[in-house]
Each structure stands twice: as structure tokens, then as C-alpha cells.
């Protein structure tokens, strides 16, 4: 990139012409050096302020698709659920793949990941590895149950989230989850998370 | 006609898929067995069956043109598949490009069927103008083509000697992608200066989501709708996917339907409970770039070596720019030679390397290591364990891969344990 920019200033006058050729998809020579010009770049200075392609997204269109929930609670819907309500849903729609959330049966291979942290086996699960409660809600709502993704009501998602968090000893049995209480939950694993510190270069990280 | 004999029902076939038309030949009996397949299983099956008889092709007119071409009936490169992924047969490829139908797959809820006429990409959130683009809209924007690799960050398997390159690290593939720069679309919707992250969301049944720094969106991210010159394959995200050159495959969200600009990451399931890994007593997150890596794809298990000259071949790649050097050792890592790189060496792309070697029949180990333009050298497994701890997990593992050459010419993977 740097070299290309140098060339551009060096051969100022012909640069525009060369770029045109680049945009057209052909190779060109940089002042006879013989290097193919980069094909990735385009000179946006020649572009209009807007191409005018596409249509404005209506509030209805955005609302229909904007289902994400952030750790600060932004995106949580109205509604609520309790541990007891969630247990009924879990047993009916989740346990077949994820197994019992209250009693881990050793040696049984489940079709889906175990959801409850078991200190003895150190399996990565929600209680010991998931850093935010919002992720549990978001993931269940968008893609669970696996055979009928997106079929749970918001109340049911609140309930199942409450039940699973309770099974992981993060939520009290009488807790009610809603848009106000869920973002206040601090997950045990949150303090373990660090951002990537690999930067290339000689050091192995 | 002496080819009548060829058409008797009991005439042996190598493969039931071979058309009768192909077999309309004379009685010459050149026996051919396809030995290039990586699959030991396939070779055994073929060897147990009677051989295909092929006549002199100069004496008979062959089949004419067809609407869609096929591979030679003698070539059988195949992916190895599991319930959620399939692996590219790296050892069957002769250059850095991966045929589209052999590109690795990793799906989180299967491959969706999306009608291109109904497809829409919505960009909203911290933008001046929230917009919806149809596929036809995306294709009208100034387009760009680039070649780069895509690699799943969980791309290291080990544990036994009888493993092929495909089984060890077949979750990397390379295509030539065409689409619109994401920066072009960002410009169109007017991304607000305070936006630092964007959510990319797929329209598969997982409604897969990842958070990506806006900087990458402006650097070299693309929304691609074509792969190797034709419409992108369903398994690769038809009709359009996000492409983040050099970054772990999971971030390159397939079947992309929505991009939401924001001022913090969304902490989705795939960037918290998955695609993160223990580093000593911490968990490393947002590990985007794929570090430099290489593997010798020939000779490799299950090849059989013969004494004399052999061209060692393989691929090297890095998500941090270009490969500047690949070194090959034929004495178990004691000394290293610089391999020849196939030009052009592209940015964030599989780079084919070759090294000529004379095997004298002694037992040894051969291996390669890649060096990228940041001066990063592909580490050994023990270097990675030293840096990250024994509970290293399966993500972003790029260790030097060694092949054992046995005295009888057998080539075996050298698995290393670290716990």
C-alpha cells in the first residue's frame, strides 16, 4: 500500500490514467518497473456522493430482524420468566439433547453440549466459561431449540435462561428475569476474558 | 465390432458411475488404477475390483462437448465430512487454489436455501441512512476480485500416525472471490464516526452472529457473491457472505443478511463460549488473525517413497500479509533450507512451495516452517504450549507438522502429545 502511494505521488499526472485502467480490471505498468498494479484499490474521488442503489430500511424491517441483545441489556424485549417456568420448557424442549440440568450423568454422551458447569469434570459450560448472561438469552432466542429455531416466545426464553443460570448456581431459585434484572447478572467467567494480544512479529503468543 | 465384448453385462467396471458410453471402446486392455486418492479405503476397494479396460484412444472418437464438465473418471478428490464440517483434500491439489466443490465447510445449522431474488442485506445501527440492498443492488456497486485463503480457527488435529494433510488441517481452502468492498457500502450508508464495531448476522437456522471491528470493515472486508468466477456455492454462503481476508473463517459470516453498526461488541455465543481459548489462567477473545502456517502435502501419509529425487511440495499461508519465506528441513529440524515459492505470492493467501530433495533411504523426518512479513516464524507445538499453557484448546493452533520417513519408504505423520 505504501509503495503504491509513493508511486502515485511520484507519477502524479499519469496516476489517474493508470487507476482508470486498474478499475477496468487490466494490469498496468508503474513507470516501466514491470510490477502489476494492485487490483484491489479504486479511486473513490471519482465516485458520486451516493450511488443510489438499494432502498432505505424501514423501522418495521429493522424491528423484524434486529433481535440481538448486548451485555448492557440493549435489545432485551418486554416480558419475564422464572426458574420454575423455565424448568417446564427445558424438560419439554431442551433436555432431550442437553440432558438433565440438575443431575449430570457421568459417561453419557449427549447430542448437544452440557450446559451446567461441573467442577469435577471441568467441562466448559455456561457457569464457568460464558462471560455474559445476555449471550445465553440471545443465543437461545435466535437459534434454539435446534430442531425448531426461533420458536420460543420471549417469556419462554427468559424462563429457560433463568432455569439454566439457576442450575449453574448463578441465579437464586426465586429469581425473575426481565429486561431490568438480566443485565445486572455478573457471570463468574467474565473476569477471565482478555483481548487478543498476538501482534505478529517474532514472539510466539 | 470388437468392442461388443466390452459391453457384456458381466464385464468388470471400476466404478458403477462410469457411463456406458465411455466404455464403447475396443478390446485393448490397458489397466489403469487411480492411485492419487488420499483415502486408503478407496484405494483398497478399487484394488479388490477388476480393472477398467481402456482401448487405444487414438482409434476411436470420444464423447462430444457437454453442458457442464466433470472430473476425469480416474480422479476422485473428496472432502472428508462430519456432521458439521468437511475438510479439503490438500494432498490432492497441485497448486494454491481450491476447486469450489472441495472448499472446506463448517456450518452451525446446515446450509440454508436462499432465493437470490428475495435476498436482502440490511445495514443499520450507527449509520446516517439505514439501507436494504437486494442482491442485484450489491452487484451494481463497483466490484473487486481478490484471492485469499479462508481457514477455520479450529484447524488442528493430531493423535495418530496414519493421518493425511486433509485430516490434520483440511479446514483451510483458497478461492478467488468477487464482490463489493464493505467500505463502499459503509460509504453509501454513512457509518457514524463513533461506530467501532459491527455485528454480522447470517440467515441460516443458527442466525450466526459475530462482532467485527469497524476498522476491518474499512480495511479490506468484502461482501462477496462470486467464488472462482461463478456464483458463490451454497455451502460457502450463497448468495452472499462476508469475507474478512486473513481472519478466522467463523467471522466471515455466510448467507449474510444484516450488519448493525455499534460502539461496542455484542458478545455473541460464537465470540465468547466458542472461538476463544485458554491462555495460561485467562481466556483469549477476539483472536481474529490466522497466524503463519505451512504443511508439506507431498510426500505425506499415505504416500510411499522411493529412493532418489523427490520434490517436496506444500502450502504456506498467513493472515498477517504475505509469506516471505518457507524453510524445509529433511533432517528432523537440525538444518533448514529455503524452499522455492510459486509466484505470485499474494497477500493473505495460500502460497505453494517446493523443495527438491534426494532421499538416500535413511530414516528421517521432514517438515516445513513459514515466515511472514511481520517476521513471525511458525512455531513448534512446544513453543505454543510454552506461550499458552497445557490447557491450550483447539483454536489458533499452527504448529510445525513433521512427517516421518521410514526405511521402507512409508510416510507417517508425527503426532506430538502436550499434556
Structure description:
The complex is a heterodimer of chains A (about 200) and B (about 425). Chain A is mainly alpha-helical. Chain A has two domains: about 1-45, no CATH class; about 60-190, Cytochrome c-like domain (Cytochrome Bc1 Complex, Chain D, domain 2), CATH 1.10.760. Helices cover about 35% and strands about 5% of the residues of chain A. Chain A has eight helices and four strands. In chain A, strands 2-3 form a two-stranded antiparallel sheet. The two termini of chain A are about 25 Å apart. In chain A, about 30% of the residues are buried. Chain B is mainly β and about 425 residues long. Chain B folds into three domains: about 1-60, no CATH class; about 80-275, Oxidoreductase, molybdopterin-binding domain (Sulfite Oxidase, Chain A, domain 2, Alpha-Beta Complex); about 295-415, Immunoglobulin-like. Chain B is built from six helices and 26 strands. Chain B has helices spanning about 40-50, 135-140, 165-170, 180-190, 215-220, 380-390; strands spanning about 30, 50-55, 80, 85, 105, 120-125, 130-135, 145-150, 170-180, 195-200, 210-215, 220-225, 230, 240-245, 255-260, 275-280, 280-285, 295-300, 310-315, 325-330, 335-340, 340, 350-360, 365-370, 400-405, 410-415. Chain B has a five-stranded mixed β-sheet with strand order 7-6-15-10-11. In chain B, strands 8, 9, 12, 13 and 14 form a five-stranded antiparallel β-sheet that branches. The longest helix of chain B has 9 residues, at about 40-50. The relative contact order of chain B is 0.12. Residues about 1-50 of chain B have low confidence and may be disordered. The interface between A and B is large, with 54 and 67 residues. Strand 4 (about 195) of chain A pairs parallel with strand 17 of chain B, so a sheet runs across the interface.
Tally of separate domains of chain A: 2
Shape of chain A: globular
Based on secondary structure, the structural category of chain B is: mainly beta
What structural class do the secondary elements of chain A suggest? mainly alpha
CATH topology of the largest domain in chain B: Sulfite Oxidase, Chain A, domain 2
Tally of contiguous helical segments of chain B: 6
Query: For the report, how would you describe the main beta sheet of chain A?
Result: 2 strands, antiparallel
Overall shape of chain B: globular
Gyration radius of chain A, to the nearest Å? 27 Å
Q: Whole-number average pLDDT of chain A?
A: 83
Amino acid at each position: 500500500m505504501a509503495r503504491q502511494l509513493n508511486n502515485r505521488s511520484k507519477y502524479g499526472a499519469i496516476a489517474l490514467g493508470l487507476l482508470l485502467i486498474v478499475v477496468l480490471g487490466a494490469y498496468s505498468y508503474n513507470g516501466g518497473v514491470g510490477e502489476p498494479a494492485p487490483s484491489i484499490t479504486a479511486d473513490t474521488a471519482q465516485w458520486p456522493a451516493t450511488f443510489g442503489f438499494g432502498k432505505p430500511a424501514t423501522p418495521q424491517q429493522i424491528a423484524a430482524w434486529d433481535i440481538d441483545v448486548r451485555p448492557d441489556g440493549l435489545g432485551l424485549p418486554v416480558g419475564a420468566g422464572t426458574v420454575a417456568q423455565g424448568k417446564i420448557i427445558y424438560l419439554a424442549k431442551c433436555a432431550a439433547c442437553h440432558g438433565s440440568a440438575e443431575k449430570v450423568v457421568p459417561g453419557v454422551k449427549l447430542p448437544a453440549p452440557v450446559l451446567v458447569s461441573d467442577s469435577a469434570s471441568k467441562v466448559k459450560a455456561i457457569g464457568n466459561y460464558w462471560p455474559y448472561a445476555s449471550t445465553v438469552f440471545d443465543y437461545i432466542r435466535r437459534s434454539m431449540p435446534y430442531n425448531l429455531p426461533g420458536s420460543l416466545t420471549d417469556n419462554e426464553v427468559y424462563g429457560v435462561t433463568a432455569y439454566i443460570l439457576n442450575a449453574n448456581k448463578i441465579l437464586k431459585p426465586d429469581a425473575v428475569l426481565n429486561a431490568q434484572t438480566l443485565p445486572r447478572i455478573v457471570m463468574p467467567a467474565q473476569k477471565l476474558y482478555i483481548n487478543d494480544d498476538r501482534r505478529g512479529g517474532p514472539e510466539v503468543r | 465390432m470388437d468392442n461388443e465384448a466390452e459391453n457384456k453385462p458381466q464385464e468388470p467396471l471400476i466404478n458403477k458411475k462410469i457411463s456406458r458410453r465411455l466404455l464403447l471402446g475396443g478390446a485393448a486392455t490397458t489397466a489403469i488404477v487411480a492411485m492419487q486418492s488420499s483415502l486408503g479405503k478407496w484405494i483398497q476397494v478399487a484394488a479388490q475390483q477388476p480393472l477398467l479396460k481402456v482401448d487405444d484412444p487414438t482409434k476411436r472418437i470420444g464423447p462430444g462437448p457437454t453442458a457442464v464438465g466433470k472430473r476425469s473418471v480416474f480422479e476422485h478428490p473428496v472432502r472428508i465430512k462430519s456432521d458439521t464440517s468437511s475438510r479439503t483434500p490438500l494432498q490432492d491439489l497441485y497448486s494454491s487454489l481450491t476447486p469450489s466443490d472441495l472448499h472446506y465447510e463448517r456450518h452451525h445449522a446446515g446450509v440454508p436455501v436462499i432465493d437470490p431474488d428475495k435476498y436482502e442485506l440490511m445495514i443499520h445501527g450507527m449509520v446516517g441512512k439505514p439501507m436494504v440492498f437486494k442482491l442485484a443492488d450489491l452487484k451494481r456497486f463497483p466490484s473487486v476480485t481478490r484471492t485469499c485463503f479462508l481457514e477455520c480457527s479450529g484447524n488442528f488435529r493430531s493423535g495418530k500416525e496414519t493421518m493425511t494433510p486433509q485430516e490434520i488441517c483440511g479446514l483451510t481452502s483458497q478461492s478467488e472471490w468477487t464482490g463489493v468492498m464493505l467500505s463502499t457500502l459503509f460509504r453509501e450508508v454513512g457509518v457514524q464516526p463513533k461506530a467501532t464495531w459491527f455485528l454480522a448476522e447470517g440467515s441460516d437456522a443458527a442466525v450466526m452472529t459475530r462482532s467485527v471491528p469497524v476498522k476491518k470493515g474499512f480495511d479490506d472486508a468484502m461482501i462477496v457473491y462470486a467464488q472462482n468466477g461463478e456464483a458463490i456455492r451454497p455451502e460457502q454462503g450463497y448468495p452472499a457472505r462476508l469475507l474478512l481476508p486473513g481472519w478466522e473463517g467463523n467471522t466471515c459470516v455466510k448467507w449474510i443478511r444484516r450488519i448493525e453498526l455499534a460502539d461496542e461488541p455484542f458478545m455473541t455465543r460464537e465470540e465468547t463460549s466458542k472461538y476463544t481459548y485458554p491462555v495460561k489462567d485467562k481466556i483469549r477473545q477476539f483472536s481474529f488473525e490466522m497466524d503463519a502456517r505451512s504443511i508439506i502435502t507431498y510426500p505425506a501419509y499415505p504416500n510411499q517413497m522411493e529412493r532418489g529425487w523427490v520434490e517436496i511440495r506444500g502450502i504456506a499461508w498467513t493472515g498477517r500479509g504475505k509469506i516471505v519465506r518457507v524453510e524445509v528441513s529433511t533432517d528432523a529440524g537440525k538444518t533448514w533450507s529455503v524452499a522455492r515459492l510459486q509466484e505470485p505470492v499474494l497477500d493473505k493467501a495460500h502460497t505453494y512451495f517446493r523443495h527438491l530433495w534426494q532421499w538416500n533411504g535413511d530414516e528421517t523426518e521432514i517438515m516445513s516452517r513459514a515466515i511472514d512479513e511481520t517476521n513471525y516464524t511458525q512455531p513448534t507445538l512446544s513453543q505454543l504450549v510454552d506461550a499458552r499453557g497445557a490447557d491450550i484448546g483447539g483454536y489458533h493452533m499452527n504448529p510445525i507438522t513433521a512427517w516421518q520417513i521410514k526405511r521402507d519408504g512409508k510416510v507417517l505423520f508425527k503426532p506430538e502429545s502436550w499434556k
